[in-house]
Structure formats: C-alpha cells, structure tokens
C-alpha cells in the first residue's frame, strides 16, 4: 500500500483516527511539517483494487462510485487506486493475493471463490435464481451475511455484494436454441468445476480458462464460444469475435468486493464505515446501471451484427438437473434456503 502525504488541514478525520490509534493516551499525529506552508501533513492511506473488466463496464460503475465516495467521505485520508482489465492478475490469483495481503482488494465474479470457500459452490448452480430481484434480496439479506462470515474465516472481508448477472452463451457456429445445439462446441467456462460439468451435460466441450485469455482465444478460434452476462458481452466488444448471443440465463453470477481483512481492521472504525458505506452506494449505482442499460446494450449488439435469440430454458434445466442432484447434497440447506427466498 503506497503512502502519500496530504495537508492535515484538509483531513481532520485522519488526524483523529491516528490519534485514536495511539492507544489510551491522546496522541497527535506526528507527521512531518511542510516548512513552506507551515501546515502539518499526515500520511494518507492508498488502497489498491484490481478487477477483470473495463472502466466503462458495470464493474467500472461500481468501482468509480466506490472511489468517489471514499475519497469524498474520508476527506482524502484514503485514496483508491483501481486497476482494470486484469492488470494485477486474474480472479483466482486475486483471491489468493487478497488472502495473503499482497493485494488490498478485488472486485470479482464469485465463481472462483468456491475454490477457497466451498459454500460458494451453491451460487454457481444453474437456474438457482428466478430473477435479479430474488438474487439481490438473497445477497443483501441473511444468506449474504452468512456467506460473508465464511469469507472472514479465510481472512477475506467482503466490502459489499455487487452483480455480474445472468450468464448467456455466445458463439460463432450457430444459434443455441436447445442443448443439442452445443454438441462439440468448445465453450470457455470460468475455472469453476460445476460450470464445466453443466456444459458437458449440455453436450458442449467445456474449456476452463482465465478471463484475460478469452477474447484472443475466441479471435484465434482456440474456443468457439463463452458465457457471460450482457454487460460483459457488450463492454468486451464480443461482436468483433462472436456472431450469436443465446439468452439462456443459465447461471446468475454475483460479484464480490473482496478485501484483505487484516488491512480492513487496521482502519479506524470511522474509516471502516466510510469503506462499507461507499461499497453500498457503489452497489446501488451498479444495479441502476445494469437495469438502465442492459436492454439497450442488447439492441446495440444486434445493430453491430450479432444475432440474438431467446431460448426455452426447460430442456437446459432438464439437462442440468443430474449435475444439481450430484452436488446439491453437500449444500442442501443453503440451496433450499436460497430457493425458498424466491420472490
Ligand atoms: O468477473 O471470468 C468470467 O467469465 C467472469 O464472469 C468475468 O471475469 C467477470
């Protein structure tokens, strides 16, 4: 975490925070004094965040809102440095780095977390959530809190839930209208075992791959397709490498704002509140961005030459059921609680 110096006059919060950190006796910040202006300056804390997506994506909407809120409400005592396009590694690497403290935080799809917290496997079950309202109420309620506790047990603070969204299939062979259409199609999946099994059950050839390799792999024909929510298909400019979008909505991916918990606890209670409040505001901004733009993004993908088709999900649900039955036993209680929360 890089340290920067700011004028104390502009950041009374930090001065109080630093004094409070001095234990029982009142300590004042003993930072260097700027000889020119005579002002006393104290260290500002900089936090570094990584994400896979572009700054103009729905992830970018979340993170730019977070950055603005933190720097506004911490009086500049906390600076946020966001790195887009997997600049500081892929999602799975990021979970490990945040856990070890070599990366402060990351905004990622929850899929890869199941490799660290088994309960997260449930979130990647196909057709688990009825709609966005169902999913958002689950993650912003008791179940979301329970999952956050599981994350804390491995040293990771979830600053706040976000949304990746309902995942749809893109490919360059033909429209996907029924599972049989996926026969032999090389579909990139996240590094999530249950996703690989679901696409094998659909008849596809699942190819697990980190996000940063997907666009060039599609361009080079190493894979035929992939699956992601519309906002990612749009912001990734997949119309340049894919011809078909099939609206299967087969999995809902939440997004998680993972943060090194030791670092989080090093902030004063006031600063911790600034961080969590900023994440809440960012979540609302992202939800609004998604709800406002997704329909228009589909129309724009069509205008750019992509063929978009609806599907009857029942055959996909039937094909996926054996995979659900195989794994549900391990997480039956959580699975049933989520299903029961459907609006
Ligand atoms: O987090 O890997 C994926 O397909 C994820 O949905 C993407 O990185 C957004």
UniProtKB/TrEMBL annotation:
A GO BP annotation: transmembrane transport
Position of the signal peptide: 1-19
A Gene Ontology molecular function term of the record: carbohydrate binding
Gene3D superfamilies for this protein: Bacterial extracellular solute-binding protein, family 7
One Gene Ontology term, aspect cellular component: outer membrane-bounded periplasmic space
InterPro entries: DctP_fam, TRAP_DctP, TRAP_DctP_sf
The keyword Signal is assigned to this record: yes
The protein, known as: DctP family TRAP transporter solute-binding subunit
Organism: Lysinibacillus composti
Taxonomic lineage: Bacteria, Bacillati, Bacillota, Bacilli, Bacillales
